[in-house]
User: Fold these one by one.
Assistant:
Number 1:
Amino acid sequence: MSISVAFEKARAEGRALLIGCMPAGFPTVDGSIAAMTAMVEAGVDVIEVEIPYSDPVMDGPVIQRASDIALAGGVRTRHALRIIEAVAATGAPVVTMTYWNPIEKYGVDAFARDLAAAGGTGLITPDLIPDEADEWLAASDAHQIDRTFLVSPSSTDARIAMTVEHCRGFVYATAVMGVTGAREQTSSAAPTLVGRVRAVTDLAVGVGLGVGTGAQAAQVGSYADGVIVGSALVRCLLDVPDEATGLAALRTLSAELAEGVRRR
């Protein structure tokens, strides 16, 4: 199932889509597959698999720490592709998030080819802007990969229009100016940003950065097509005495978030 179809299904049910993010290979390769599978089983609609990277510009301290653990364990892009394949086998759509350097090192066309072969349906590129994305635009077209670029509250109307013109699948609206991480309150700027995006496109709009509870998911889901949650889910697996405890916490929060988008 493509993410576009998943958005259509959620819209037909009168709710927002829930996208849950987890770094590939955290806490281990098999452990990350178990975690993402648990998220799907608990009601997360789409899994966002982040390829760990040593120099992130968007990730907050929680995801940075998880990515560092994965990298220290030897996780590389080839492992991430194996994880994507395993998670896609659950039937949930899988999108990937990565910074540009790992793609360039892997080979742009080869990455698009192997991502599609693994069952990945789309790619979020936080540090790649459409103006500099000619090679990725061509590769994603050739291998039918949806591409998601980011817009923020500081984006001009012209920049938003140009960015969404190059998106396919959905648009990622960053709710705050800053790095990822759950916050006590969601962004007051996000509804306005979603409205500005919808003024120039019919693509679904997902909102990320700051959501960590079912109540916040319901709040964001009341105006956005998709609610993107990362740090709060990752935190369930950090600083726990054992994997079983972490997975139990992850299932509980995933179910709470899923219920949140359904009661918006």
Note: Residues 243-262 form the longest helix (20 residues).
Number 2:
Amino acid sequence: MIGFSSDEEDQFDAVFTHEQGKGYGYFRLQEDNLRDPDIYLANGLSLRALVRLSDLRPSGVRPALLVGKPDLELPYPYIEQPIEWHKLFEALDDLVEKRADALSKLEASDIVTVPERRRRDRLDLDLRDPAEYERMRAKLPENGMVLVVDKNPVLSDHLQKMVTRYQLAVDWVNGEADAIAFCKRQSVAILIVNTSTANVDAYRLCRTVKDNQPGMRIAVIFLTGQSFGYDLARARDAGADGYLVKPLVSHHLLSALKKFLPNVR
């Protein structure tokens, strides 16, 4: 959801919990959830929301619906405000069915589209030299691998099979100290932390790994369950890059990796 207040988001959450379309249920992705959305729902009366939506490049595979008719002509369907909820669900159901058609055409191509990750809105014209951004950007570790912190190697073994064709190495440790030591001696591009791992403080581990590698871009992804409440403010303060909710679906996990590894396409 893009461009709505917290009260509006709560209202959508309540409606999605108690109502649905013709057999389709909907839920809102929380901020920093690395799972790719199926549909973008944007405030059509907010210029900031429309600019952000444009950056995300909606498509047939990941369509957009506007709530409120914008002042300018845009290639997205919309419903009027105030919302008539049955019309919202009709519009969402229609996009779900069109999205299914688009996905069926891509099925054989093995293409996974990855939306741009942007935490800061872009509204003003930026005239700075692109080289300045290049100097500011943290560097990816050379030949960086994926390290999984978990109680057992089941996930890392599964992940290794998933990324074999990308020549991406995956390893596993089951403790916080082992993870820190591993990142010091090996080139790690992504650290995946199962937050249910015994005696592992995910936030502390994330902060330590980030602090130990200044100037390097190590992505840290939390795997959370119902018993672990993801604290957005604390996670961002520690430098975490986002989270995925268990149980995991393979293509959601692979898509999350693609967000941080440009060679995995």
Note: The CA atoms of residues 140 and 262 lie 10 Å apart.
Number 3:
Amino acid sequence: MVDVIAFGNPVYDEIITPVVRTEGRVLSGCSTNACLALSRLGRATALVGRVGPDYLDRFQSDLVRYGIAPFVKLASQTGGFKLVYDHRGDRTLDVLGVAEPITAVPAAVATAQAVIVGPILQETPLALIQVIRSQTDAPIVLDPQGLLRRFGADGRIEHFLPDEFAAIAPLCHVIKANEVETKVITGIDPRIDPVLAARRLHETGCAIAIVTIAEAGSQIDDGERSIAIPAYATDARDPTGAGDTYMAGFLHAYLTDPCDLFRAGCTGAATASIWIEHTGPDAPITLVEVERRTSVLLSQP
């Protein structure tokens, strides 16, 4: 039995920050990172995506090692980015490979407690999400990052708002967006007005909107309440995957108690704080440490 099934192509990225540089390409991806974190929190996870022959054997071996059930179809090549961060945390993304869109929905989606849709680059179109919605009543949690990306004139990734987003949002129970994605979707800068930004994101049609704002924490809006979530203070060596693992921590707590959104948000922040202290898929996330850090956030005035 799978607790959480995630849709989104895995990638193998090269990551460069002011303090870290990977040796070659490392496993990553929105849905992949969420599955990695959830599995370490005790949730049975499965990943649906496409991988090229260049990384297929390595990917299958990686998922076995990390305890994630693979629903993998072959692509022409494996997706990936070269991510370069500056001292402010801003990044550029150069594409190293692009896998084709996901077309299959495994039967396991019908019995999962939750579904994550976390695309990297346009691989989860509206038609796929509609099929997922038709096969389950479980909450769909959307990280829209890959829906909002396209190739710019210079060949690098740029952000835009696709027309189909208006139809996708109401199919999702939770939408979690970072500050850049929130501004693209709503036109509101969450660093200036996080409450309004989260409310506008909620008004796209989801039940719960989450806006993450890095070291400034996050804001959750369910249409009735606006909840400010503090960030867990830590030494961030690599922000890649912070939002993915926040989503994982939030979902883990939400499945336990869907009424306590403040705890769920704090669990997300605690989980992400461990991830960004490291680089790559081996961050030592444990339920004990996540709960300890969550308790610290819950006790803040």
Note: The longest strand covers residues 45-51.
